[in-house]
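Exercise 7.
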Amino acid sequence: MSNTAANLSHKIASASDLKGVVRTMKALAASSISQYEQSVSALADYYRTVELGLSASLRASESNISAITTNLPTNKHNNEVIGVIIFGSDQGLVGQFNEDVADFAIKTLADIGGKPLIWAVSERVYSRLADAGFNMAKGFTVPTSVNDIAGLIRNIQIDSEKYASQIESASVYVFHNQPTVGTLYQPVSQRLLPLDRQWQLTLAQIPWPTKLLPEILCSTTATVRALIREYVFISLYRACAESLASENVSRLAAMQRAEKNIDELLENLGREFNRWRQNSIDEELNDVLAGYELLAK
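Solution. The predicted structure, written as tokens, is:
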């Protein structure tokens, strides 16, 4: 026998321990998915408030619709510098998570044109895009909990606004993986700024929920700019939370595959161990029978 009972028992014990670790990681991933999905849902009321504020502010002065943003007829930016924010993962056991979002961003940016300046939330995505020859503005660490997302988004806004303040009508795009039904996730993109005229006209037509219309006390333009900043914050927060949810969905799927493989391994080891025990019992019985026949003669 190539495998002794001790070796087989050791392999079975090791596989069982590993299965326990995989189950724990599955539970953590499932719990994390729920937390990030709830954080996205919790943004709905806040976004509705910002949306109503923007609607009231834009209605207060039609000049704001053309003063705040620029209507871009096409997605081509020629030689314009554009800001790009990409969310990835710094953790393992996520498969092609970072490669998918990075390759999607590279392809999309090639279609958009311009000169991308990239903020990457992931050291792995940062390295991949830097190797591809992109101009990297700054890298950020991926948050490890829901509580860390807001601080990360504020840091991104502060750093990116330094760039935006130097360029008129700056364009900003965000890329991330988004959970989907039927598949684990899919990479998506969104143009955050500038907000086109149609978006603003649609927003201005949203009815106020009560008969008491709001009054803009300070500068309407300043109010709109402040609300747009909150709109960008919400959009980036949602993108980060969806990226983290997608990461844990990918990890959960990997753990489920690992658990299936471990179950198959345990089943094979169990059969081999039982076969070894049966062979040992047969050998002992043969020895007893041989001894009995010897004594009988």
